[in-house]
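$ run holo --ligand "zinc ion" --emit C-alpha coordinates
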Amino acid sequence: MKNSINIIILGENASDGRCEYCGKVDELRPYGKDGAKICYDCGIKPENKAETERNIEKFLHGDNDQN
Ligand SMILES: [Zn+2]
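-- output --
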Protein backbone atom coordinates (compact mmCIF):
# COMPACT_ATOMS: atom_id res chain seq x y z
CA MET A 1 0.00 0.00 0.00
CA LYS A 2 1.29 3.39 -0.96
CA ASN A 3 1.82 5.81 1.85
CA SER A 4 3.22 8.67 -0.15
CA ILE A 5 1.69 10.73 -2.88
CA ASN A 6 3.36 12.73 -5.56
CA ILE A 7 1.67 16.07 -5.45
CA ILE A 8 4.79 17.73 -4.10
CA ILE A 9 6.79 16.63 -7.10
CA LEU A 10 4.22 17.81 -9.58
CA GLY A 11 4.87 21.44 -8.84
CA GLU A 12 4.68 22.43 -12.47
CA ASN A 13 0.93 21.96 -12.32
CA ALA A 14 0.61 24.19 -9.32
CA SER A 15 -0.89 27.60 -9.35
CA ASP A 16 -1.87 29.96 -6.61
CA GLY A 17 -5.49 30.41 -5.77
CA ARG A 18 -8.16 29.71 -3.25
CA CYS A 19 -8.56 26.10 -2.25
CA GLU A 20 -11.95 24.76 -3.26
CA TYR A 21 -12.05 22.64 -0.14
CA CYS A 22 -10.88 24.81 2.73
CA GLY A 23 -10.80 28.26 1.12
CA LYS A 24 -7.19 28.90 1.99
CA VAL A 25 -5.16 30.89 -0.51
CA ASP A 26 -2.24 28.68 -1.34
CA GLU A 27 -0.46 26.84 -4.10
CA LEU A 28 -3.14 24.62 -5.58
CA ARG A 29 -3.26 21.49 -7.65
CA PRO A 30 -6.17 20.18 -9.70
CA TYR A 31 -6.43 16.89 -7.87
CA GLY A 32 -9.64 17.42 -5.98
CA LYS A 33 -12.98 15.93 -6.79
CA ASP A 34 -13.91 16.57 -10.43
CA GLY A 35 -10.68 18.43 -10.92
CA ALA A 36 -11.26 20.82 -8.06
CA LYS A 37 -8.21 22.85 -7.21
CA ILE A 38 -7.04 22.00 -3.74
CA CYS A 39 -4.16 22.86 -1.50
CA TYR A 40 -1.59 20.37 -0.34
CA ASP A 41 -3.06 20.15 3.13
CA CYS A 42 -6.43 19.12 1.76
CA GLY A 43 -4.83 16.75 -0.72
CA ILE A 44 -3.21 14.72 2.03
CA LYS A 45 -6.16 14.65 4.38
CA PRO A 46 -7.22 11.06 5.00
CA GLU A 47 -10.70 11.70 3.65
CA ASN A 48 -9.33 13.24 0.45
CA LYS A 49 -6.18 11.26 -0.08
CA ALA A 50 -7.73 8.43 -2.10
CA GLU A 51 -9.39 10.91 -4.45
CA THR A 52 -6.18 12.90 -4.73
CA GLU A 53 -4.16 9.85 -5.62
CA ARG A 54 -6.72 8.74 -8.15
CA ASN A 55 -6.63 12.10 -9.87
CA ILE A 56 -2.85 12.13 -9.86
CA GLU A 57 -2.84 8.70 -11.47
CA LYS A 58 -5.27 9.93 -14.08
CA PHE A 59 -3.12 12.93 -14.78
CA LEU A 60 0.09 10.93 -15.01
CA HIS A 61 -1.36 8.33 -17.33
CA GLY A 62 -3.52 10.66 -19.35
CA ASP A 63 -6.47 8.50 -18.47
CA ASN A 64 -9.62 10.30 -19.43
CA ASP A 65 -11.98 7.83 -17.89
CA GLN A 66 -15.20 9.73 -17.43
CA ASN A 67 -18.54 8.10 -16.96
ZN1 LIG B 1 -7.39 23.31 1.25
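-- notes --
Residues 11-61 form one domain.
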